[in-house]
Design brief:
The protein has about 140 residues and is mainly beta. It contains 1 helix and 9 strands.
Length: about 140
């Protein structure tokens, strides 16, 4: 049976940025740790959809991020295009071996034994398009 899980995180990266070329066009590399908190989630198992139950999950996640990007001067700021790879270090689920109760609407509740493998970690490739403006531009207004 195919299972899917979609989680929404609040992510706080602490990245070092190395600028390789700084003209009208700028290229850069970035890398560093990141701390995330799972805010909400949805799960699907076959035709059954539900809100994700975090009782067997680690909501806090530590990861490493690394990427590259480029920017172009535009007005008082810079238009940026950034690509990053996110490598999770924390197990997403707690290891569990035992009975769980399952209650499907319209059917009799039942209990079954399950084994949750704790070796599940996040791997994410992300792309960002943004505009960076200097804070001095806001302060001078």
């Amino acid at each position: 049976m195919k299972q899917k899980r979609r989680l929404s995180y609040l992510e706080v990266p602490i990245l070092l940025k190395a600028t390789l070329q700084k003209t009208k066009w700028c290229t850069y590399l970035n890398a560093g740790p990141s701390l995330g908190y799972a805010m909400a989630g949805k799960s699907k198992s076959g035709d059954l959809k539900s809100d994700y139950n975090f009782s067997q999950s680690n909501r806090l996640e530590l990861s490493l991020q690394g990427g590259a990007g480029f920017g172009v001067s535009l007005g008082s700021g810079t238009l940026l295009l950034d690509a990053r790879y996110f490598f999770g270090l924390t197990h997403l689920v707690k290891e569990f071996d035992g009975p769980i109760s399952i209650d499907i609407p319209g059917e009799e509740p039942f209990t079954t034994n399950v084994h949750l493998d704790a070796d599940q970690k996040s791997r994410v490739l992300s792309f960002t398009l943004g505009y960076a403006f200097p804070l001095s531009a806001i302060a001078s207004k």
